[in-house]
Design goal:
Blueprint: E1 13-25, E2 28-34, E3 50-57, E4 60-67, E5 77-82, H1 89-96, E6 102-106, E7 123-129, H2 133-146, E8 151-158, H3 167-176, E9 181-187, H4 203-212, E10 231-236, H5 238-250, E11 258-262, E12 281-289, E13 292-300, H6 305-311, E14 329-334, E15 337-339, H7 347-351, E16 354-356, E17 360-362, E18 366-370
Parallel strand pairs: 7-8, 7-10, 8-9, 10-11, 12-18
Antiparallel strand pairs: 1-2, 1-6, 2-5, 3-4, 3-6, 12-13, 14-16, 14-18, 15-17
Helix pairs in contact: 4-5
């Protein structure tokens, strides 16, 4: 999606040479960039992170976020990119930039990451939809390289077999790590002769996966493969993430072990809100953004801070609106809010006063937040 963050929040950019460009499917392609020795430290990253590309399209400058498919040990920046429509800026990105040319690439960022545990026996499950496979590939390559005791299972959904990005790279990983990597492909718009593999990846499909594919654990006769799952990685569209995350939680995986990355704007909560809040009316709100001071009054606290300010037309930064991306991170300087569950802030960050505007319910008559201190 086109990045909606103000330019001041985009991070540091450097010109990198485009070393490789390859069409993967009818509407997806990959790009690989060379990182010069002088910038090696700037482009150190963790599996699951992303970069922002800054490029012109149709007379405008676009900022688009793309997850890396490369793993840290590979020493390169490789991306997977989708062309959503004929008018999409990413079509110009593919057509207008040739190998040997230079693009502005931000330094790596993002928190769709895992702590490496090379000495432990772990089971990690990934769910991906379409181009949402990109950070999962980075994770899986990294884990296979660094964690010899970890088992990996991937459930990957696409519309048709000829529309599967990175299928050759994934199949090569399976051939190299048959004893530790198991991949199952699902198709929502093609009959493949197996009803189990047909249809979308959703809550119902997860239950079938648990009961049909994750039952027998050869290493432990008293438990199932699903019982052994330590971490779940999910990447794709919002509805898919919501459905699968809730299915995993409802089948015994703690929320802290379910990690997701969103590939589009999404305005709903991932998990159901379990708490009712007292109604507060006529709320005074002050906030600082990009050096400017703003003041306004909110009718009540029925919506979260971000949504209220966007309705009033303020240029507040956001991307997902679901507590995943961290774009609306700010510091609460005055007043009281309830911060709902989110996938971004750490416990220490919350203790330091940081909140996400998209996941904060106001609980006082007056609040003040600062978007410039993060």
């Amino acid at each position: 999606m086109e990045n909606l963050l103000p330019k001041a929040k985009q991070g540091n950019f450097h010109l990198l040479k485009l070393a490789k460009k390859e069409q993967l499917t009818k509407n997806t392609f990959s790009m690989e960039f060379e990182v010069p020795e002088s910038l090696k430290n700037n482009y150190q990253f963790e599996a699951g992170q992303y970069v922002t590309l800054k490029y012109p399209s149709k007379g405008e400058i676009y900022y688009n976020d793309f997850s890396m498919t490369s793993a840290p040990f590979e020493g390169k920046i490789a991306l997977g990119i989708k062309i959503n429509t004929e008018e999409s800026s990413t079509k110009d990105l593919y057509n207008d930039f040739e190998i040997g040319g230079f693009l502005e690439v931000s330094e790596p960022k993002g928190r769709f990451t895992l702590v490496s545990k090379p000495h432990e026996f772990r089971t990690i499950v990934g769910f991906a939809g379409g181009i949402g496979i990109t950070p999962i590939i980075s994770h899986f390559k990294n884990i296979l390289h660094n964690e010899p005791r970890t088992r990996l299972f991937l459930f990957y959904g696409n519309k048709t077999r000829d529309g599967v990005p990175f299928n050759e790279e994934l199949d090569e990983l399976v051939s190299q790590h048959k004893e530790r990597l198991d991949i199952h492909y699902f198709y929502s718009r093609e009959k493949v002769g197996n009803a189990f593999l047909e249809g979308r990846l959703d809550e119902k499909k997860v239950v079938l996966i648990i009961n049909q594919l994750m039952m027998i654990d050869d290493t432990d006769e008293e438990s199932t493969l699903w019982d052994a799952v330590d971490e779940v990685l999910i990447c794709g569209k919002g509805e898919m993430i919501k459905s699968i995350a809730n299915a995993c939680f409802n089948n015994g995986i703690p929320k802290k072990n379910i990690h997701f990355e969103l590939f589009e704007e999404y305005n709903e909560d991932i998990y159901p809100q379990e708490k009712e809040f007292p109604l507060i009316e006529d709320i005074e709100v002050g906030f600082k953004l990009l050096g400017n001071e703003y003041k306004t009054t909110l009718k009540n606290n029925k919506m979260r801070i971000l949504q209220e300010l966007l309705v009033q037309g303020f240029p507040v930064p956001y991307s997902c609106k679901s507590g995943i991306c961290g774009s609306c991170e700010c510091i609460l300087e005055e007043g009281e809010v309830e911060l709902l569950e989110n996938e971004y802030l750490t416990e220490n960050e919350e203790k330091s006063g940081k909140i996400l505007a998209c996941m904060s319910v106001i609980l006082s008559k007056k609040i003040k937040v600062n978007f410039d201190l993060v």
